[in-house]
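User: For documentation purposes, I need each entry recorded in a consistent format: the amino acid sequence on its own, followed directly by the corresponding structure tokens. There are two entries in this batch. Please keep commentary to a minimum and don't merge the entries.

Assistant: Recorded as requested. Entry 1:
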Amino acid sequence: DHGTYPFVTSSNPTAGGACVGTGIGPRYLSRIVGITKAYTTRVGAGPFPTELTDELGDKLVDIGREFGTVT
């Protein structure tokens, strides 16, 4: 599980997890590129102790084109 328990994802957001999710074996990959965000976001309910609810938070929402959604 990845995230803040009990609000975790059952998905594996790693290169190996992508292989499992797509059915493509890792030996067929010639290159893996890692991507990360510079700030934390949350999808759905749950605690978010570092949430910025001020003007700076609004600016990050605009720049990062973040918007609320659930899956």
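Entry 2:
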Amino acid sequence: MRNPLIASRLFNIPLMVLPDKLDAVIFGLQERIGIHVEDAPEPSMYLTQSGERREPGYQVIDGVAVIEVFGGLAHRGGLQADSSYILGYQTIARRLTAALEDSGVHTVLMVLDSPGGEVSGVFSLAEQIYNARGTKRIVAAVSDMACSAGYLIASACGEVYASETACLGSIGVVMRHVDQSKRIEKMGMTITHIFMGDHKVDGNPFEPLPEDVRARYQNVCIKLYTMFTQRVALYLGMDVQAVINTQAAVYVGDESLNVGLANGVESTDETISRLISERGGAGSRQTITGMETSTMSTEKKEPKAGQVTKPAATAAASEPTTTSEVVEQPAAATEQPAAVTSDVQADVPDGAALERTRIKTIMSSDHAKGREEQASHLAYETEMSADAAIKVLASGVSAVKPAGNKLDKVMANTQQPDVGAEGGEQAEMSDSARILSDLNASRGIKKQGAQS
């Protein structure tokens, strides 16, 4: 094996990836761990609309920053394993940061086509996305896969739209061990381990996996699965049990609506067009009365069947208010003067009125009867549109508020399996880093920078 370090990232380590995809990667690398770097696919492969390309690797279409998340996902670097592209979480994070700091961007769209990947790094990226939701609107478009770690990223966006054939879910954890002892014996070879520390060679591929080692690995998977399901519940405002009930199943298209994993079904191009129109982007006539401009539309955009959109008040909540406005007029409308008058401004409903209407619609819905507590949570403590909230109520999927709306409080209410020591320096580690540190410790691997 020419690259044992690559193999160590596939075997005896928990992964958040579709098992079939893991099999494909392993098959491609089975005889030789052959890796070579190639350029990432162009965004035009996933979109028919085009926009200005900006570094470090996203494009902007009328104020919508499009960030592609495709292929297998890993903690660092972009690799090419056989025919499977491996995208680094840090690369996605850099693109997200740049888009958030871009003054020409009002919405970030994460376009996903990924079966998932490594655990290391994905929880940090998901938290970055979740925490940025108050800065700019962040939306996920699944075209055509967001599974396992890919779905964690999608859920962190808060709004998830899937194409008709998109695959979503696989909310679970998988770990593989390869026993090559019979192959080694057939080759007439004997492998001898010389080591100190009872767990130094746990999980080695030259002998069957002992039951006690298997049990420890299973506990690691359980703990990571608990983190995974609780994060998805937190990001989407769902009940944890509703996420667990999916049992890592994969849902296609509108099936994802029934279990609360998506807000609507539409193509990526439709999502982009809608996000632009909601901000009065493409084709709008700009009337500038000051140094800053904003946009609004005098035309009501009716959502398509099955499409759920955020209320205008929510979509614009993070945007600063300016003293000058830009009005988009229908093609046949009379041209307006250069300055926007107070009469025009008076016709635009304020955010408070829209929010009152949204709350009233949810609370007075027939589906809210008998589910008043859940309806109250959806109305007052989430940003769901009225249509989306009513669909959740109608589906019977619970959406109670996680305690304190903080992951640490959610984790505190759930029994965790005991996987290694968690004191001392580990108290300052992130949950995922601590779990992987425990796993490495059980295998006799010291922290990075120490000699093993």
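Summary note for entry 2:
The radius of gyration is 25 Å.
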